[in-house]
Design goal:
The complex is a heterotrimer of chains A (194), B (396) and C (248). By secondary structure, chain A is α+β, with helices and mostly antiparallel strands. Chain A has three helices and ten strands; from the N terminus they run H-E-E-E-E-E-E-H-E-E-E-E-H. Chain A has a single domain, classed as Mog1/PsbP, alpha/beta/alpha sandwich (Protein Transport Mog1p, Chain A, 3-Layer(aba) Sandwich), CATH 3.40.1000. Helices cover 20% and strands 38% of the residues of chain A. In chain A, the strands form two sheets. Chain A has an eight-stranded antiparallel sheet. Chain B contains 18 helices and three strands. A three-stranded mixed sheet of chain B has the order 1-3-2, sandwiched between helices. Chain C is an alpha/beta fold and 248 residues long. In chain C, 33% of the residues lie in helices and 21% in strands. Chain C contains five helices and eight strands; from the N terminus they run αββββαβαβαββα. The chains are: A alpha+beta (194), B mainly alpha (396), C alpha/beta (248). Chains in contact: A-B, A-C, B-C. At the A-C interface, helix 1 of A face helix 1 and helix 3 of C. Chain C: This is DUF4136 domain-containing protein. Chain C: Keywords: Signal.
Amino acid sequence: MTRLLIGLSMGLAAMSPAAANSLVSAGPRPNIAGSSFSAAPVDEWNRLSRKDGKNVEIWTRDGDQLNKVTFFGGIPSGKPLVREIDKKRQPLPKVAADMLITDIPVMLESTYRIQYAVSQMDIDSQEPATLGGHKAIRFTYRFAREDDGVRRKGEAIGAFVGGKLYLVTYEAPALYFFDKDVEKYRKLAATLAL
Amino acid sequence: MRHLSRFALCGAGSILALLGPSPASGAEPGLELPTYTRAYEPRTVDERGVWMEADEAERGLRDSPLRIREAGLEAYLREVLCREVGTERCAGVRIYAMEIPGFNASMMANGTMQVWSGLLLRSRSEAELAAVLGHEFAHFELRHSLTGFQQRRRATDAIAWIGVWGALTNRDTSSTQSIIERGIYRYGREQETDADLLGLQYAALSGYPASTPSEVWKNLMAEEDASAAGRNQKPKQKYTAGYFDSHPTHLKRSIYLAEAAAKMPPGGDARAKEYRAAMAPYLPRFLAAQIKRNDFGGTEHILQSLAADSGWGPDLLFARAELYRTRGNPRDLQVAAQYYREARAAGYMGAELDRNLGLALLRNGQADEGRQSLNAYLTAMPEASDAKMIRALVAN
Amino acid sequence: MKITWFLRAACAVAIAATGISAAAQEKTGNKPGFTLAPGTARIVLMRPTIWVGEQSTAGMPEPNADWTTQARENIARALADAQTGLGNVVISYDEDASGEGALVAEYSHLFGAVAESVIEYQFFSGNRLPTKKRKDSFDWGVGNGIAGLKSLEGGDYALFINVHDEYGSTGRKILQIVSMFAPGAGVSSGVHKGHAGLVDLKTGELVWLNADWEMGGDVRTAEGAAKRVRQLLEGFPGRPAEAPAEGE
């Protein structure tokens, strides 16, 4: 109950000034997420100034609650996907060099459950794909957080390259937003290179 | 200015005096009727306020995507609660089962109770579940939402006044403020103890064993120690709560509950078999969620504690295999493969066992055996949502 | 859960003490070129999120059910009056026997997420998105799936209202006055904020949103609620200008 109210008040109050978000216009875009990830978006995106981790970058069209593309650019062995909030009590799973490609969705799910209070999550489809010429996995998923009443859907592509994890996810509310922007994400994902 | 500061000091002093030990239950005029009376209506301004918030929050729970709506679960939880606190008390309660993996249940002022899946997973009998539900119900009967709110208001008001007084007189008031702040937490701990003891009285009348509430805390302590050990940290059980702990320590609770229970009639059947039967349909899903919490020690403890009660059945063996495969050291992968095979031998039917066994073997470099298992999965589930991916792995 | 209340109150004091207070902020967005359909518009008022209470001396919010109920009634009546004046009809949402409670709740949560995004990423400086800064752009919605809901049939628009009021207690007001003598310990009294949005039930588009962090009008009284509703409806889309008089 309190959580709901706090959520509400934070929502309205969380407008503290930060470094500005920047425009991602159509055209080639190198060094995404401080890595060798590159893309050539066809549509416009906004890059959030917020950082969830050293090699993490977030793009959005209407705000990260409504549509969100996250780039995980080369997470090395022994590191978590995002910065840990509480290393001691809520340690996140770490990338391991011997992971199979099918461990990528498992790792994403576990990270979400621990870090973002996601208490329902299901991986739906999994199929082989290529990411910048490397063997990759494409998967879809659904999840709901404890602290808001919006169910979300996701689609992602990930690969291990040189022992590092490269992963791009697209997430949006299942109602309306996911379908509205999924094609824009797919067009973007089709231009990904490493 | 000087007058003003002296006034502020007096004000702060008398507020401090007001903060002494406060009555545990709401004996405020107008609040004589128990909250569980049928169609009870809140009586005072504060009580109506607290209920209004609870009413809004209850709408949220009712419509939440996390609510476990499958037929029967919430009705079963209600049966357990009613057995624990008696039909008269439980009549007005609404129970919501929520898919949240933490060990928790809570009750709001208006009689809304939420029970988390993490509590359902860890309980080994109706009596254990009932001990926690009874404790939460005791908070409700003692109007703790209301009195806790009022106490926090008194205390934070005093902190604000002292802060302004400090600013006026240019003095550091942080230690005085901290004393009052600790009072808030101490009050919270007193509420917990009161609820524990009233909860125990319900247990003693319920027919469930009176010793169970103490067991629940012991088991939770063991889980926390196992969890810490699994993360190479020191176990953290202690007898005295810190100033800023909102609850008494588990150790202290388990001891005073056991002492009080020793003076009560022992009670009867914990109804473990009935509980297992009721949870069977949900167990695999709850276990899967627990395994994804990256808590090897805690999860292993839960599995062992469940197995100590029921034996290592197919679901528990499969979960244990998953736990080891997820941690993923070479030795873990070997152990996982073994547990998968034991689960199969114990009668685990699902085809995902072959897939996960295959993945464990593959990751461990046992390529041929791994492919064999993955092929078995594909033969059983050619249209599975991950069949394409698994086929690609086999082909490599 | 109990302790978070305390932390929140403590934060309120901390914020007040550092003297950061939300500057008067009020912002309206309209879908460019949108006007209400001609004729009488049927506006479904979704269950408003209304919270009215007191602010304790320390700044802790204290819910007051009586005030909230008064505010609920006053605001509903003032809204109906205001819209009748514009020639529209306001109907309160009723789930009825549609069985759509959970789905409609999800749409309400989605609207909440959209409203928060508009407020954070378009209305106020600080965290704006570059694509949302452009002049005359207001492109938001919850999708036309909402048109399929049985329980909203017959409505033209859905109106969402969110109001949060904390009236300074006597203690809080005295603390505010006393603190004026204390350098660096500014204490504000009272919180009055709200937002309102209108969704076109045929298209799901958000055609208007108004947000205000410092609202006037005491919602506990009929007159105050009328003033509050006027402020909440700031920039509410009107109908096309009346046809010019003949001969012009």
